[in-house]
Amino acid sequence: MRKAYSRRAIRLEEMIMHELGRILVQEIQDPRLELVTVSGVRLNTDLTVAEVLYTHGQSPVRHSEVQQGLDAARGYMRTMLGKRIKLRHVPELRFVWDSFLEETIHDPPIADT
Hints:
The chain is an alpha+beta fold. It is 44% helix and 19% strand.
């Protein structure tokens, strides 16, 4: 997926990230998604696909359960996103585990000596 870099795309990514975070906290009742945080959104060049980066405070063993919960709520979240942002075409949501924080904690940079 090629990432979009236009001002419109960047603004839309921020809006999507903010609204999905609110939807997760206020409206989703799935216990698998209790500690899920949306850490970023990347749109493709024609704004039809949104990769939603997420993290969660649960153990890595529960990662598949969280992914299943997000996949199950995908349609509802997309519908609510369309109502809140008022887009003609709401992008398809694809949830991707954001391993950046985990990598920085477990693999600290090596200092030059």
